[in-house]
Specification:
Elements lengths: L7 E8 L2 H12 L2 E4 L9 E5 L2 E8 L10 E6 L3 H10 L3 E9 L3 E7 L5 E7 L13 E8 L2 H12 L2 E4 L8 E5 L6 E5 L11 E7 L5 H11 L3 E8 L4 E6 L5 E6 L11 H5 L5
């Protein structure tokens, strides 16, 4: 992929049981793995789908107080400059900027609404495969302050933002900056359980021949859980699930869409955690 600042460039999941996570995602998506032999990189695991890199898997350092979660990384042309702009507009740096041996430089921070996000300035040529079954197709920031999130990320990367909800019952904006649109922001509302922090929800494409419903059943068979059972949207048929170690994500069959959007979407997307 070409490296365009502000576009999605990588995703990774943390785990308290890396071997268990590898088994889960291999069973769900058919992933295979390459484990880096270099201990300086923590034996980092790269997940492959059809031989192409689609994600990273990492353990949780014993001293780290962080939840098991999926993390999104956006491309940066200059990680030091990104850090300056990020904090200048109200973000909080949680880690870095720091060198990742042989891979470039990384930064992790919390935006002003609380959403944790990563940035990556590449070292060597980069390959990250998306949109096909078993890979990332959509990344959505769920936040209690949608307007502030829109402003912050527009200032950070100059995203073009488009309201694709009704702006009232469903306040949902898509963000684009050259290339395919893969980013969006959803305003959480009173339908959501109180206390849920802002977070990124990563959506993985499922094989249309399998479908979202069968993929959800497979999640359960592999020891995961379902937070929201499949529902139809204009983006596709979506379900929200979690792996056996607590990392949440979404499944989507983008070939099964409804047009126009159903009026029930506001209730459906707000059900998480209730």
């Amino acid at each position: 992929m070409s490296f365009v600042p502000g576009l999605v460039c990588w995703i990774e999941v943390s785990s308290s049981d890396p071997a268990g996570s590898r088994d889960f995602y291999a069973g769900l998506f058919g992933w295979t793995y390459q484990i880096d032999p270099d201990p300086r990189r923590g034996h980092y695991t790269t997940a492959l789908r059809a031989g192409l890199p689609v994600a990273g898997l990492a353990g949780i350092p014993v001293q780290a107080e962080q939840p098991v979660a999926w993390r999104l990384y956006l491309a940066s042309a200059n990680i030091m400059h990104t850090a300056e702009v990020f904090t200048g507009w109200g973000g909080q740096v949680l880690y870095g900027p720091a060198d990742a041996p042989g891979q470039g430089s990384v930064l992790i921070g919390a935006d002003p609404t609380g959403g944790v996000i990563g940035f990556w300035e590449p070292g060597p040529p980069w390959i990250f495969h998306t949109t096909d079954p078993g890979s990332l197709i959509w990344a959505e920031l769920n936040t209690w302050d949608g307007a502030r999130a829109d402003e912050f990320y527009a200032n950070l990367f100059g995203y073009h933002q488009h309201q694709i909800g009704d702006g009232r019952y469903v306040d949902y904006t898509s963000w684009s900056r050259g290339g395919p649109t893969m980013l969006a922001r959803l305003q959480m509302n009173e339908g959501w359980a109180p206390g849920i922090p802002a977070h990124w929800m990563l959506h993985f494409a499922v094989d249309p021949q399998t479908g979202t419903d069968a993929a959800v059943n497979r999640v359960l068979e592999l020891g995961g859980r379902v937070d929201i059972y499949p529902y139809d949207t204009e983006l596709g048929r979506i379900a929200r699930v979690a792996d056996p170690f607590g990392a949440t994500f979404a499944l989507i069959d983008p070939t099964t869409r409804v047009v126009p959007p159903p009026t029930s979407i506001a209730d459906q997307v707000g059900y998480l955690g209730n």
